[in-house]
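Work Package 3 (structural annotation) set out to generate three-dimensional models for the target panel prioritized at the project kickoff. During this period the team completed the workflow that converts sequence records into discrete structure tokens, so that structures can be stored uniformly alongside our sequence database. As a representative example, we reproduce one entry of 442 residues exactly as it appears in the project archive.
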Amino acid sequence: MTTATREITVKLRRPHLKQQEFINSPAKRKIIRAGRRSGKTTGIAIPAVQKFLEGHRVLYAAPTGEQTDRFWHEVIRALNPVIDAGVYKKNETERYIEKPGTENRIKAKTAWNANTLRGDYADYLILDEWQLMAEDTWDDVGAPMLIDNNGDAAFIYTPPSLKSTSISRASDPRHASKMFKAAQKDETGRWAAFHFTSHDNPHLSDEGLIEVTKDMSRDSYLKEIMAEDDDEQADILVYGCFNENICKIPRFEIPKEWMVYTGHDFGSANPAALFIAKEPTTGFLYCFREYIPLTGKSTYQNVQGFKKLAALPGESGKEEPKLYSILQRVGGNQTTEDEIRQGYASQGWPITAPYITRVNAQVDRVKGIMEKNKLFVFSDMYRLLEQINTCMWKLDEFGKRTNEIKDEKRYHLLACLRYLCSIFTPETDRSKNKDKTPVWSY
């Protein structure tokens, strides 16, 4: 007599690149530092389900029930076919799924210290929002429960902000950060550290991220979105000298008589432009328009977009608007993009090459102006402010700052700013009226 067998397919989500890195890692201990909505919990659910289907006992813990919801949703979504087929049993109240008569189980529970984690055991332990848990969650209970089966553990956290430290159960609010640093230094392969940001999640809307961060301070943005720890932020921000308290200002109407300059970063898919007005009496610079089209446009279409942004007040809706007096347009690589500049010139928008060729020298020129609080950015220019607040130096294998910008190619508006500031000489920057009050505060 033959017994018929039925094949059931369990479908897991396709991980994005950063999720794939920690999923593929063979390390016994993994710690993941990631931004909000970056996919850290969704990502860890993938190996959790895989381990469960291999017969392991999986325990996921987070400080509150709401924080376990995302993980439990992903587990149910993946395992529903085998639950419906009766292969596994689900207990929705206690939030676990098990194979009857075995130790094979996956469970999501709330835990924030040793006492709340007691009573369970596993050979694959996941502690999410680890920065909010007390250290004894791992030391007294988590680590010992893995001894019998030589189990694995994963820790997930977002650097604590002022908002979260008040609800943390940790005696040392930086214990997760310290564990991450120790994991980075481990040379045995037993530990592995992973870092990614909200921007690394390809399923998030760029526009949505901009909307969410409108009211966030630089500190909150670096922690919640970029997942950067405090002691790493000061030295690795390229433009950390930008003073938001002084130089992030409300929008006002740029006077018609002011001279305007434009900076341009070329690219068929990601062209960008930045419009800066110069106050005649002080030499203060005001970033007042930014251009990043959602889709690649032709040179002609880009020029039409530039003209709309450079239109004088009351002229923006006209087909041929009168423009601010544009003194100079600067952009592109000095040696390799002359053909692109010629293309813009043929459309009536001539662009010159930047005076300074080296990226770091261009950065120094921008920082020199920022340090004097002479570069102002309107508060509704979210993309430029985001790039200023997140552009960082690349770190070497020892965690030391290098002179290379991390992911430089994605900072298109900052490239525009670098090109443009290369034309402002130190003599121009040192205005005799440097102590004059900015015009916007009159």
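Residues 65-84 form the longest helix (20 residues).
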